[in-house]
Write a structure and sequence with these properties.
single chain, two-stranded antiparallel sheet, 40% helix, 16% strand, 86 residues, 2 domains, alpha+beta
Length: 86
């Protein structure tokens, strides 16, 4: 489906794509650039409570001390952080 980029460098996502991905205004998407293509994926962001934030902060302090941690994409990093919180 052909779309024009606006002067603000924006592209409108067609309604049928929004419905297929169950996206609504205000939702988040993850963008990746692969060669000459841009991939857009729906992302679900879960709310954390205060205890979750404290747990995550403690784990992040531990990670700061580790050297050379690299992840191929944001999903891999999220999975690693989630495994540390369990």
């Amino acid at each position: 489906m052909l779309r024009r980029i606006t002067r603000n460098k924006q592209v409108t996502i067609p309604k049928e794509f929004m419905e297929q991905l169950r996206l609504r205004e205000g939702d988040y998407v993850d963008l990746d650039c692969e060669g000459n293509a841009i991939r857009l994926r729906a992302v679900v962001i879960q709310d954390f409570n205060h205890a979750d934030y404290e747990k995550l902060a403690a784990k992040l302090d531990t990670l700061k001390k580790e050297q050379g941690m690299h992840f191929k994409d944001s999903n891999s990093a999220r999975k690693h952080l989630k495994s540390l919180m369990d």
